[in-house]
Design a protein that fits this description.
Helix content: 10-25%
Shape: elongated
Structural class: alpha+beta
CATH topology of one domain: Ribosomal Protein L9, domain 1
Mean pLDDT: 83
CATH architecture of one domain: 3-Layer(aba) Sandwich
Low-confidence stretches: 1-8
Largest sheet: 3 strands, antiparallel
Order of helices and strands: HEEEH
Bound molecules: FE2/S2 (inorganic) cluster
Strand content: 15-25%
Strand order of the largest sheet: 1-2-3
């Protein structure tokens, strides 16, 4: 017997339940502060430039510069190591 047979079977008083729609995809993101380095952004988030334009993004995880020395802002290019950038990783 198929599902169609059950839904149309004589004697059923109630309409067949309709399948629940698939749950909407839950957006998520996380930001991890790397000691003496960038902010790692993982997940479904749009990164906007100061102009309001979306920053080009090809990966689900990106590193955002927080030292100010990157040549590819807003992304990290590793320059933080060259300049000896350090962070105070104590919670605020
Ligand atoms: S944090 Fe890596 S270049 Fe700035």
């Amino acid at each position: 017997m198929s599902i169609r047979d059950i839904r149309t079977a004589p004697g059923r008083d109630e309409p067949a339940p309709t399948p629940e729609p698939a749950p909407a995809r839950t957006p998520w993101a996380s930001v991890t502060a790397c000691p003496d380095g960038p902010l790692l952004v993982r997940g479904d988030v749009e990164i906007l430039l100061a102009s309001g334009e979306p920053a080009p993004r090809r990966r689900s995880t990106v590193a955002l510069c927080r030292c100010g020395a990157s040549g590819i802002k807003p992304y990290c290019d590793g320059s933080h190591k060259v300049i000896g950038f350090t962070t105070d990783d104590e919670p605020v």
